[in-house]
Amino acid sequence: MDDKKRIEVTFFGHNVPFLYSIVAKLTDEEKKIRQEKFLGEMERSISKKRYILTTLVDDSNLELIEINKELMKRTDYVKDCIKNNTAYHPENEHHFHRILAYTEAALFQLKALCEIIKTYLFDFYEYYLKKSKVDCLSDLAKKAIDLAWIEDLGNLRNDLLHNYSSWIFLEETDSAFTFGLKLPHKFKLKSWQKDTVTVDDLNGFYSEFSISFNKIADLINEKIIEKRAQES
User: pLDDT (tens digit, 9 = 90+) per residue, 74-104?
Assistant: First the structure.
């Protein structure tokens, strides 16, 4: 029998103001529904995954700083690699492995976060508003909340999770080097059709998420306010 003692760790996650504003507007009956229907757990999951995503992005940037320090020390070698189109052999390979791991993990967390938010939104409509998924999709369209980008993210995430790993390439900028992910181009089951994932691609996903998240938060709060007005 396993009788090992466990210590629970205090919950820590991102401060997500819109979740607090939602709960503040709920009636006692709705707060009861929130606990019974797992909505509170989803709110905590959204908070936690946002915190993890931010941490992974920050850690990737820290590794990139270390990589650029190495590149600055080996300027002549870097110039030879560019001139002769040859591969760069790192002195400190762990920085490259870490940035790869953090970036892939960030993509996984972002996709999971999108799915939890969608589930939360549909459940919000069902349990709080007594409306269907169709009603929710209609409101998303009216508010110009386009979630089509999540399919691209899902294709990339599924490839990296199930089909292959990526590797890193370095790309020169005005003042330093940034990075991207190199992907195989002949794999027949490939869903993400490009051969690379650039920082622009990554920033595009993060930007789309931020825009969509804020619009969904506004929609949810607007719907609660509408419901309170109808009840008064």
Answer: 999 999 999 999 999 999 999 999 999 999 9
Range of the structural domain that residue 104 is part of: 26-231
**Residue 154 confidence (pLDDT):** 95
Q: Is residue 192 part of a domain?
A: yes
Which residues have C-beta within 8 Å of that of residue 170, sequence separation ≥ 6?
A: 67, 71, 88, 177, 178, 179
190-211 residue pLDDT tens: 888 899 999 999 999 999 999 9
Q: Distance (Å, rounded) from C-alpha 206 to C-alpha 115?
A: 15
> Which amino acid is present at 18?
F
In a domain, 220, yes or no: yes
For residue 179, the cross-strand partners are: 170
Closest CA to 48 of 19, 26, 7: 19
Name residues whose C-beta falls within 8 Å of residue 220's C-beta, 6 or more positions apart in sequence.
Answer: 18, 22, 121, 124
